[in-house]
Automatic annotation (TrEMBL):
Taxonomic classification: Bacteria, Pseudomonadati, Pseudomonadota, Alphaproteobacteria, Acetobacterales
Span of domain Methyltransferase FkbM: 221-381
Source organism per UniProt: Roseomonas populi
Protein name, UniProt field: FkbM family methyltransferase
Pfam short name (any one): Methyltransf_21
GO MF assignments: methyltransferase activity
Length: 426
């Protein structure tokens, strides 16, 4: 051991001398190693820069996608764009420091990538929500268009269906918007009028009836004829309502009775085969060539007549019955009908009256238009003219101008028109 220990310092000195001698020889090799390390670092930096470029491209694609969806979710897109721009600034800052902070860049890039993945996932989820919302909106839009198309088809097909007439015995069965009606086969004028109007012979009058009435109301229809206004009134008041129809012509009353049964309305409509007048009795009804022109007054062109029972409306309608609307179409016989319904007028201060004003009928009856109008205004009614084209009503013109028309349906109201919110006022 004593021989070995003294030799160690000598060996160390010899090693140092050898290293100093080898340094010039090792320097080129060390330089090559340093160059390779630097190249490896630069290559790693280029890879990281490529990843940063890819991330930037993904950010730009997300921004472009969000901008295309800005109309649907502007606020959410703005917030997300600001966050992505902040991330972009962070990436740019990392690029500036990549030469000296490769490890920091790697960590930052990884963290940024994770954050972007989360942001992209959130954006994709939002886009899915927007797609779902738009699908629902599109579905609603399609449904709305479908409803419009169905309504358009109904508007076009209803008149076409009304023009189909089926012979039933000595009558024709025609379809109206509210149901089927039997029309006398011999009444060519009425058949043509119904055919051409698509079942709406007086569309404005029907619209007023439907606007004034509500479900459960009671209606008087004096001069019901074949039921052109009876059916709309019955459909409007429904099973809880009541229509009291009066028609003196035997043939028309029988056809109307059969029509009511055909439509299942015989439980709503009480049909009375008689004329309405000032006092009970009998009278001669002059039958017109056109069904709706038959009259208890003298009628030019009438080829026959029939004896009919006459009853007062006060007799037909039980006391205490609340009448909401009375439609009167009796070809100039209105004063007699009016005198026979005094109790009904007294019991129903809010009742509306729909009546035909026909100057020619009044001349045959020997009644002055002013006296005829005073019969209603004296009882507290205000007259409104019915526009048959639109269904709207407007205050009646002065009597001289009104007397110049051939015929007009008037709505008489004791209450303000505002009481009838569904009624259109021109």
């Amino acid at each position: 051991m004593s021989d070995i220990e003294p030799s160690r310092p000598i060996l160390r000195r010899a090693g140092r001398v050898a290293l100093r001698g080898l340094r010039p020889l090792a320097l080129p090799f060390l330089h090559r190693i340093q160059l390779r390390v630097r190249q490896a670092a630069e290559s790693a930096a280029q890879v990281l820069l490529g990843r940063l470029d890819d991330l930037s491209a993904r950010v730009e694609r997300v921004e472009a996608h969000l901008r295309s969806e800005a109309a649907a979710s502007e606020r959410a897109t703005d917030r997300l764009t600001l966050r992505i721009q902040a991330l972009q600034l962070g990436i740019d800052a990392l690029r500036l420091e990549q030469g000296t902070r490769q490890e920091a860049i790697t960590r930052a890039v990884t963290a940024t990538e994770e954050r972007l993945e989360k942001e992209i996932t959130a954006v994709e989820g939002r886009l899915a929500e927007l797609t779902s919302d738009r699908a629902a909106a599109i579905q609603a839009l399609v449904q709305g268009r479908t409803d419009i198309i169905h309504g358009f088809v109904r508007e076009r097909t209803e008149p076409l269906l009304a023009r189909a007439a089926l012979p039933v015995g000595d009558a024709l069965l025609m379809r109206l918007p509210e149901g089927f009606l039997l029309i006398p086969a011999e009444d060519a004028s009425l058949i043509v009028a119904i055919y051409e109007s698509g079942g709406r012979l007086e569309p404005g009058t029907v619209a007023v009836i439907q606007a004034v009435l509500r479900e459960g109301d009671t209606v008087l229809d004096v001069g019901a004829n074949v039921g052109l206004t009876v059916l709309p009134a019955a459909r409007r008041v429904g099973p809880a309502g009541r229509v009291i129809a009066v028609e003196p012509t035997a043939r028309l009353a029988e056809l109307l009775r059969r029509s009511l049964v055909t439509n299942g309305l015989d439980g709503i409509v009480a049909l009375h085969r008689c004329a309405a007048g000032a006092a009970p009795g009998t009278a001669e009804l002059n039958i017109g060539v056109t069904s709706g022109h038959s009259s208890l007054l003298a009628l030019p062109g009438s080829e026959r007549s029939e004896t009919v029972e006459v009853r007062t409306l006060d007799d037909l309608v039980p006391p205490g019955t609340r009448i909401h609307l009375a439609k009167i179409d009796v070809e100039g016989f209105e004063p007699d009908v009016w005198r026979g319904m005094r109790r009904i007028l007294a019991e129903n201060p809010g009742m509306a009256v729909l009546v035909e004003f026909g100057p020619e009928h009044l001349r045959r009856a020997g009644i002055q238009p002013g006296d005829w109008m005073a019969m209603f205004t004296g009882a507290g009614f205000t007259p409104y003219e019915v526009d048959e084209a639109t269904g709207a009503v407007r205050p009646a013109r002065p009597l001289p101008a009104l007397a110049a028309v051939q015929s007009a349906n008037l709505l008489m109201l004791r209450q303000p028109v505002e009481v009838y919110p569904a009624l259109r006022v021109a």
